User: Fold these one by one.
Assistant:
Number 1:
Amino acid sequence: MLVNQLSVFMENKEGRLEQVLQTLAEGNININSLSLAEATDYGMLRMIVSDPEAGKTALKAKGFMARLTPVLAVDVADEVGQLQIVLTKIKQAGINIEYVYSMKAGGDGATIIIRTSDLEKTQEVLEA
C-alpha cells in the first residue's frame, strides 16, 4: 500500500531530534515508525506518522525542512527469509531499492517501509 512518509532534513546537532519530536507531540501527531540516517553535519529523518500533512505543516512552521515522500508499506510474515523473498522479487523485476526500514510488528508479522526507483511497478510485482 502506498503511504506518505514525512521526511525531515535537519542539522546534526544536539537537541534537533528532540525539537522535531516535541513539535509532532504538540500537534498530537503519533509516530508509527522512524528511521534516522546521519552524515557529519546533517541527517535525514524519515517517519510514518498518523497525519503526514499536519506533521509537515507543523514542522515547516518551526523552520524545519520537511516534505512528504511516497513509499510502500508492505506486510511480511514473521518467518525466516520472508524479507529476503520480498526484496528478491523486487530485484528480479529490475527495480532499484533505495531504502528499507521496519514499521511495526504486530500479530503474525511486521510491516516494512520500502522506497524504490519505481513504486508503481514495485506494488504490481508484490501484488502478483
Number 2:
Amino acid sequence: MKYKKYIIALLLASSIWACKEVTNEIPTAFTTTPYQIDIPTTLPPANFPKDNRPTVEGVYLGRMLFYDPILSADSTQSCSSCHNQEFAFTDNGKQFSEGIEGKLGGRNSMPIFNMQWHLDGFFWDGRAELLRHQALLPIQDPLEMNETLDNMLVKLNHSEMYKEHFKKAFDADEIDEELVSKALEQFMNIIISGNSKFDRVQLGLEEFTPQESVGQIVFNSESVPLSEEVNPNNPTNFGGDCFHCHGNSLFMRRELINNGLDSVLTDMGMGDVTGKETDNGKFKTPSLRNIEKSGPYMHDGRFNTLEEVIDFYLTGAHASSPNIDPSMH
C-alpha cells in the first residue's frame, strides 16, 4: 500500500511540473500603444489608414527615420532636410531642392501636414496613391537621396537600435521596405495643422480684425465681371473666387487641376502619370494653411511672395492653357 501511495504522489508531482512548464512557454501577445491625438473640431474627422493606425511605438520610429540621414546613399540627407518644420515642412524657402549629389529637382518641395485628408494622391502630380508609397520614392530618386531600397534595408538591419524599435512597433525580426514606409506614414499622418487664428475664430475664441474680415469676404465671394458696376464701398463687389479651390477648413481642393499658369505647357503634371492628354497641366492644390511659411509658390516655385500670386490671379492666368479648370475663367 505504501508503495502505491508513493507512485501516486510521484505521478501527481510530475503532472503539476509538466503543467507549470507548459504555462511558462505561452508567448506574451504582441501589443502596441494607440497614439492619442485630438483632431481639432474645425477639421474633418480622423482619416487614418485602417491597416496602419498610429501607435506610440510606430510614430516614434517614423520620427526617427524622418530625421535620420541614414536613408540617403551617403548618409548626409534626411527627409527633414527638404521638409523643415520651421518652413511648414517645406525646403527652407528654396525654389527647388538640392539632392546629395548637388542636383536640383524640377518642382518645389510640398508641405507636410494634414496628410491623412489627402484623397487625391501625393506629389504635385498625384503619382503616389498612398502616403506610405510617397515616403519611399524620394529615397530612391537620383535627384534627391539617391539610395536603393536594398541598401537602405541592409543599413537598417545592421542597426541594433532600429531592430529594437521595429520589433516594438511591428513585432518584426526583419526590417523590410513595407514596414519602413508604414512607420514614416504613421509619423507624417500625425502632423496636424488646426490651431491657427482661423480655427480659434471659428471656435469663438478670437475675432478677426476689420481688415481680416474684409479679406475673408473677398476670399469667399464670387468675382464680379468687369462689365458690371462695382461699388468700392462694398467688399462683396471684389470677390476673389479663392474659395473654389481653397474654400474648406483644409484650404485645399481634393482633385488635381490646371490653374492656367502657362499657355504652353512645359511640365505635364498629372498627364505624365496617367498618359492622358486631358490631364496635361494638372497639379495638386496645396493647402493655404501655414502659407506665410511655405513659399515660394506653385509647383515650380515661380512666385516668391503672396503678392505675386495674387497679381497672377488678377491679371496673369492664361485662359488658353490646355485643360484649364472652369473655375479659372
